[in-house]
Specification:
By secondary structure, the protein is an alpha+beta fold. The chain has one domain (34-118): Ribosomal protein L17 (50s Ribosomal Protein L17, Chain: A, Alpha-Beta Complex), CATH 3.90.1030. The protein contains 4 helices and 3 strands, in the order αβαααββ. It is globular and about 45 Å long. Belongs to the bacterial ribosomal protein bL17 family. InterPro entries: Ribosomal_bL17, Ribosomal_bL17_CS, Ribosomal_bL17_sf.
């Protein structure tokens, strides 16, 4: 039974899940909306919203935390975009920076699909 198990594993180990979330987050930051499976979008939502909340303060510690969560050289460009462009839009907003829009099922394997985007 799956009671009280909130983390979706996606058939991956811990490092694989972190890599998946980082790549999805970087794609969302770069393009501002992405189409993915519904489960991945729902798992990405709290990850990216915490980063935007840290980006609102625009302090050095927040920048370093965002870079460490996004990882590597791409994390630096992602952190720059979050702090300079995305977070200032939500200065007065108390949370809920993203929305998940459900789409019809995928043709090939009937997976539930969704679009995740910044509000």
């Amino acid at each position: 039974m799956k009671h009280h198990k909130s983390i979706r594993k996606f058939g991956r180990d811990h490092a694989g899940r972190i890599a998946l979330l980082r790549s999805l987050a970087l794609a969302l930051i770069e393009r501002e909306h992405i189409q993915t499976t519904e489960a991945r979008a729902k798992e990405l939502r709290p990850f990216i919203e915490k980063l935007v909340t840290h980006g609102r303060s625009a302090e050095l510690a927040s920048r370093r935390l965002i870079i460490s969560r996004l990882g590597g050289v791409d994390g630096e460009s992602g952190a720059k975009k979050i702090i300079d462009e995305i977070a200032p839009r939500y200065k007065e907003r108390a949370g809920g920076y993203t929305r998940v829009i459900k789409l019809p099922r995928r043709q090939g394997d009937a997976s539930k699909m969704a679009i995740i985007e910044f509000v």
